[in-house]
Amino acid sequence: MKRFLSVFLLAGGLLVAGGVNAAVTITLTETGGNVVATGVGRLDISQLGNPTLENVVGGFVNPSIGVLNTGPATPTDIDLYSGISGPTSFGSGSLNLADSGTGDVMGVTTSLRLRVPRNYSTGGSLSGSATWTNKTFASLGLTPGTYTYTWSGDSLTIQIGPAPSPAPIPITLRMDAVDAGIDGDDACWMALP
Q1: Is the pLDDT confidence value at 89 over 70?
Q2: Of the residues 39, 54, 77, 180, which has the maximum number of CB atoms within 10 A of its CB?
Q3: pLDDT band at residue 58 under the 50/70/90 scheme
Q4: What is d(CA 34, CA 125) in angstroms, rounded to the nearest whole number?
Q5: In total, how many domains does the chain have?
Q6: 18 or 42: which carries more pLDDT confidence?
Q7: Residue 136 in contact with residue 35, Cβ under 8 Å?
Q8: Full DSSP string of 12-74
């Protein structure tokens, strides 16, 4: 029985392995006739050097040049870090300011730079949103998909639309009837999706 449970627990662990491991994920959804960007997580910026101070309107998007920010729709001081890599666009749209937003400014900008709240400390909690009223992915020129930006030891992922479901890992288990405490010499085979 111990062997069966060990194999079952190992298989269960394999089935839940995988998925996005981004420290911050900004998810864009079409909700009630609006596009809403919601960002949450923690970042390690300790390897990115010294930031540049910038004052920006929090929530805006410019897909053709790879720019997206969450946060309030008012000017806000932020820190801008260089040294990230990732896609340089996530659609064909031009600049669109959010109609509203809350929380922390976070996101990516041209020349592959990271935006975080002014004086952000590594590991601090981040949470922000931006809303484009009466817009769709198409009207903003956003291409649905997963866009990941990385730097030494961390990452930020932009998810436009639903995330793809991870492919199941097929596993076949053989359980001897004796090991399971069942009388008989037959073996039982079980396939997990």
Answers
A1: yes
A2: 39
A3: confident
A4: 26
A5: 1
A6: 42
A7: yes
A8: HHHHH--S---SEEEEEEEETTEEEEEEEEE---TTS---EEEEEESSEEEGGGTEEEES-SS
Residue 11 lies in a domain: no
In a domain? residue 176: no
Domain that holds residue 62: 20-160
- Domain-located, residue 187: no
The predicted model gives 127-154 an average pLDDT of 97
Q: How far apart are CA 60 and CA 48, in angstroms?
A: 23
pLDDT band, very low/low/confident/very high, at 179 (cuts 50, 70, 90): low
In a domain, 14, yes or no: no
What pLDDT does residue 183 have?
55
Over residues 135-140, the mean pLDDT reads 98
Q: CB of 91 within 8 A of CB of 161?
A: no
- The yes-or-no verdict on residue 15 having pLDDT over 80 is no
**Which residue shows structure tokens 């809303």?**
131
Q: What secondary structure letter does DSSP report for 181?
A: T
What are the DSSP calls for 109-153, one per residue?
A: ETTTEEEEETT--TT-EEEEEEEETT--HHHHTB--EEEEEEETT
Q: How far is CA 5 from CA 11, 76, 192, in A?
A: 10, 54, 15
Spatial distance between the Cα atoms of 155 and 95, rounded to a whole number of angstroms = 24
Tokens encoding 165 = 């479901």
